[in-house]
């Protein structure tokens, strides 16, 4: 590769240790400055008199030389092809489009690979502005990352290594905040930050646009639940003193749980109806269609941006511009490709290490999941014993809502959220270490490998508790005469007579909303407080003493995982609003409200709280595309199973059209039909509640049976406690619904 004379001079100055002040400059801090100037190197002392800055300027000759080497595309002719304005279904995004007088769209050009020997061929009106800031930024970093600073050791090269060994403490391009922050909406983000950050904002904006339609439909479904509140016949039966008040339920745990009456679940039954009604089925089907349209429309938008930003054939340029210096240094062994007969670098194999560390992390995740489940099983008995005399009823407004099931669900959800936050710190370090050991070839390959590892950990971490409540709780409990136990010690949890859907809703709201609130605190408040504390003394000095480069130096560093966490936050949110949305139709609305704030917080954060990152090119959102597709496919399955096995919608429909005895389908008698009968004399001694745990009304009545949530034959039947025919009819209807929804 061709090196300009200025680069050689920079290398010589770096190796010159005779001047103590010059040596001090390089030891403390290095910044590179990309504004228009032909001065190659200049030195600046800071306000504190201890920190020194080296400013690197980029002459035209350096830019032209490396633009030729890196095959950067530049304009050579104005695009004279008429623009097709009529884009299909563009009206969907009209409410979110800024007018042209605000956006100030740039003219379109035909481009070609830059050739220094044919400068007259290109549209060069001003050499100082011909290359956009992101290209200048990228070229300088390319030079610095490969510049050798030791003649004896060829491996000693690159600014990143100098930063790691403490020779310099920082290296970054300067912000032009006055322009960017003031004209954020009209200034082309990609020309300032590069296409990689530009496409993130493009994706975030498009996702927010599409999210608004899901939010509107979800809100309408919730309004339907509120409007049809009085039609909830089964909840009325539960709350009725002559029906629910006379049904005695079997104990929910061994020894410490007594018999209880069905009408104690009156409040939770009404709450469950808001999300478990006919609209739930419609919304689950709608979201299956929405997620497909979202991904297909984004593919079209991404292809359009790829063309407009001239990234269609960036693979060759990416190989040269984004080849990681770590790969070039470590992978010195070359081998011949059997197909192309071209010598390529060898790859370090770390399969055993990767598997070992991954297995350790997965075991840690599984252990935390089991720990939370064990907490739920163990603490329920304690809550049931404490609340047996209903002491919480004395509380105003919320007293009647606090039940042992509710207390267990909320506390377990909060504990699970705390565990999620703690484990996140461990996942990040392990995933980075494993990816570094693999020595990926390019920056894109590095980020894709890291993305897959991190997301797999986060997927299990964030969604495991919701999967447990949705698909395992209440499904494997056995029946009063033959309960199922976890590890032979803790009796498996049961769902309330109203179903487990309301508990899934509670779990989803706590984890999803808690993550969004915590994420906004981490993104906005923490960087602001850190910057305020670091610059507290310098702010008292005039601008002449507190220079632009010192202000940028005091900002937070935008690390290699900076943009990764922005994507991860949104993709985790995408999973919440698609995988479990059938249990909470308001999830898209909460996500929309968060994203409207997120776009503005990210813009503010990038321009005022973080150092300007090194520009990078990207023609897509990378591995996140495949992850979103995986979530989309999986979401159709999970929502079908939630409607079938977590919601009570299918059993209600089967009862209404197949088992109701009246002339027209009705839900009268559904509660009695959905509860099986058990003879209390058949309880095993280890399952029978202690006399001290039973309420007073139990001893004053002649009660011989209790009810439990299942479809089984009653005592006295020729096959007692075996699943009844109604159970198999309902199971067939559930499986049929899953097949129909998948098709």
TrEMBL record:
Any GO molecular function: chloride channel activity
Listed GO CC annotations: plasma membrane
This protein's record includes keyword Kinase: no
Subcellular location(s) per record: Cell membrane; Membrane
Topology of the protein relative to the lipid bilayer: Multi-pass membrane protein
Residues annotated as domain Anoctamin transmembrane: 190-742
Pfam families linked: Anoct_dimer (PF16178), Anoctamin (PF04547)
InterPro entries: Anoct_dimer (IPR032394), Anoctamin (IPR007632), Anoctamin_TM (IPR049452)
Stretches that traverse the bilayer: 200-227, 279-298, 364-386, 406-427, 571-593, 627-646
All residue ranges annotated as the Anoctamin dimerisation domain in the record: 45-179
Keyword entries, A-Z: Cell membrane, Glycoprotein, Membrane, Transmembrane, Transmembrane helix
Protein family per UniProt: Belongs to the anoctamin family.
Protein name: Anoctamin
Source organism (scientific name): Cyprinus carpio (Common carp)
């Amino acid at each position: 590769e061709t090196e300009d004379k200025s680069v050689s001079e920079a290398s010589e100055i770096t190796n010159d240790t005779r001047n103590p002040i010059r040596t001090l400059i390089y030891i403390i801090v290095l910044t590179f400055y990309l504004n228009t100037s032909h001065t190659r190197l200049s030195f600046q002392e800071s306000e504190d008199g201890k920190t020194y800055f080296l400013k690197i300027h980029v002459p035209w000759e350096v830019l032209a030389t490396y633009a030729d080497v890196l095959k950067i595309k530049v304009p050579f002719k104005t695009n004279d092809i008429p623009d097709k304005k009529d884009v299909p279904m563009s009206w969907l995004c009209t409410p979110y489009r800024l007018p042209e007088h605000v956006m100030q769209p740039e003219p379109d050009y035909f481009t070609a690979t830059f050739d220094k020997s044919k400068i007259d061929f290109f549209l060069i009106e001003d050499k100082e502005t011909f290359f956009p800031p992101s290209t200048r930024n990228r070229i300088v970093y390319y030079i610095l990352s490969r510049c050798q600073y030791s003649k004896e050791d060829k491996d000693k090269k690159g600014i990143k290594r100098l930063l790691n060994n403490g020779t310099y403490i920082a290296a970054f391009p300067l912000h032009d905040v006055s322009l960017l922050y003031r004209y954020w909406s009209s200034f082309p983000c990609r020309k300032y930050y590069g296409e990689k950050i530009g496409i993130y904002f493009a994706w975030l904006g498009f996702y927010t646009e599409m999210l608004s339609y899901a939010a509107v439909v979800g809100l309408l479904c919730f309004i339907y639940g509120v409007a049809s509140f009085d039609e909830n016949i089964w909840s009325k039966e539960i709350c009725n003193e002559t029906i629910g008040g006379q049904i005695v339920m079997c104990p929910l745990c061994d020894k410490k749980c007594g018999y209880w009456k069905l009408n104690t679940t009156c409040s939770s039954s009404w709450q469950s109806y808001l999300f478990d009604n006919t609209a739930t089925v419609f919304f689950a089907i709608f979201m299956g269609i929405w997620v497909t349209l979202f991904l297909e429309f984004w593919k079209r938008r991404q292809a359009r941006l790829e063309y407009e930003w001239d990234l269609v054939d960036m693979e060759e340029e990416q190989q040269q511009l984004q080849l990681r210096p770590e790969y070039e240094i470590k992978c010195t062994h070359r081998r011949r490709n059997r197909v192309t007969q071209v010598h390529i670098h060898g790859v370090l194999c770390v399969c055993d290490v990767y598997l070992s560390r991954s297995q350790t992390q997965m075991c840690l995740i599984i252990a935390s999941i089991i720990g939370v489940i064990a907490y739920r099983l163990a603490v329920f008995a304690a809550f049931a014993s404490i609340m047996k005399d209903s002491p919480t009823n004395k509380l105003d407004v919320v007293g009647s809502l606090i039940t042992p099931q509710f207390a267990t669900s909320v506390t377990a959800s909060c504990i699970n959220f705390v565990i999620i936050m703690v484990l996140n710190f461990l996942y990040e370090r392990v995933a980075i270490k494993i990816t570094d050991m693999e020595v990926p070839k390019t920056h894109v390959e590095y980020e894709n490998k890291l993305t897959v590892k991190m997301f797999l950990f986060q997927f299990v971490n964030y969604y495991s508790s919701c999967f447990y409540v949705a698909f395992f709780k209440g499904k494997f409990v056995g029946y009063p005469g033959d309960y199922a136990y976890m590890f032979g010690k803790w009796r498996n949890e049961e769902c309330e007579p109203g179903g487990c859907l309301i508990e899934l809703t509670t779990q989803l709201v706590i984890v999803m909303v808690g993550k969004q609130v915590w994420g906004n605190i981490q993104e906005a408040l923490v960087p602001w407080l850190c910057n305020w504390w670091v610059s507290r003394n310098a702010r008292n000095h005039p601008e002449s003493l507190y220079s632009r480069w010192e202000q940028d130096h005091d900002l937070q560093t935008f690390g290699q995982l900076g943009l990764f966490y922005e994507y991860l936050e949104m993709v985790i949110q995408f999973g919440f609003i698609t995988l479990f949305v059938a249990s909470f139709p308001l999830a898209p609305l909460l996500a929309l409200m968060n994203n409207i704030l997120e776009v503005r917080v990210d813009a503010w954060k990038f321009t005022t709280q973080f150092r300007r990152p090194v520009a990078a090119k990207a023609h897509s959102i990378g591995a996140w595309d495949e992850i979103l597709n995986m979530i989309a496919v999986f979401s159709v399955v999970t929502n079908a199973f939630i409607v079938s096995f977590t919601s009570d919608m299918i059993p209600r429909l089967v009862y209404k059209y197949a088992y109701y005895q009246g002339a027209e389908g009705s839900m009268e008698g559904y509660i009695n039909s959905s509860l099986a009968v058990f003879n209390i004399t058949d309880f095993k001694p280890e399952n029978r509640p202690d006399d001290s745990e039973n309420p007073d009304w139990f001893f004053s009545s002649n009660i011989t049976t209790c009810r439990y949530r299942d479809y089984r034959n009653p005592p006295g039947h020729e096959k007692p406690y075996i699943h009844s025919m109604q159970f198999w009819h309902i199971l067939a209807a559930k499986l049929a619904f899953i097949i129909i929804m998948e098709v």
